[in-house]
Amino acid sequence: MDVQAIFGVQFFMSLVVWGSLAYWLLAPWLEGKSLNEALFFLTVPHAFRHIGMVFLVPGMVARPLPETFAAPAAYGDLLTGVLAFLALVALRNNWSVARMAVWIFSIIGTVDLMNALRQPNAAPDMGATWYIPTMLVPVLLVTHVMIFSRLVRRATTSNT
């Protein structure tokens, strides 16, 4: 099996496992929480997205990653991580801008992930960073979906 096929299988399997765990365990647990509490817990993993800066570190990747992937992924992750942390602060303090902060970080974070995922040619050169897209990105995608679901559901129920 070639490298990109292995990457695809690992990514897909992690997405299935994280999605199943979220459905079986996380979603039912969050139902008992207020919207801000649920959004807080779903935002926590994104506050660690500064880890994506490792795509720019020589020695962590097998060869320099394509410039169209490395810099946008690294800085997109850093920006998303900072915005996620600001959203956590806003949620924790029940600021009136908290939900808007979650919308902003989640839109930017989702666009960042989609941009990175459309570049599978980077996979063979990822080296030690391989586990970020095959293990961590799926959990980030699952939590983005859960965040958007709660925000949209809240907006829909508020308008009826």
Strand content: under 5%
Total domain units: 1
How many beta-strand segments? 0
Query: What value does the average pLDDT take?
Result: 95
What's the structural blueprint in terms of helices and strands?
Elements: H1 3-31, H2 35-43, H3 67-92, H4 98-117, H5 131-158
Describe, in plain words, how this protein is organized in 3D.
With 160 residues, the protein is an all-alpha fold. The protein contains 5 helices and no strands. The protein has one domain. The protein has helices spanning 3-31, 35-43, 67-92, 98-117, 131-158. The longest helix has 29 residues, at 3-31. It is globular, with a radius of gyration of 16 Å.
Concise account of the structure shown:
The protein contains 5 helices and no strands. The chain has 160 residues and is mainly α.
What are the salient characteristics of this protein?
single chain; 160 residues; mainly alpha; 5 helices; globular
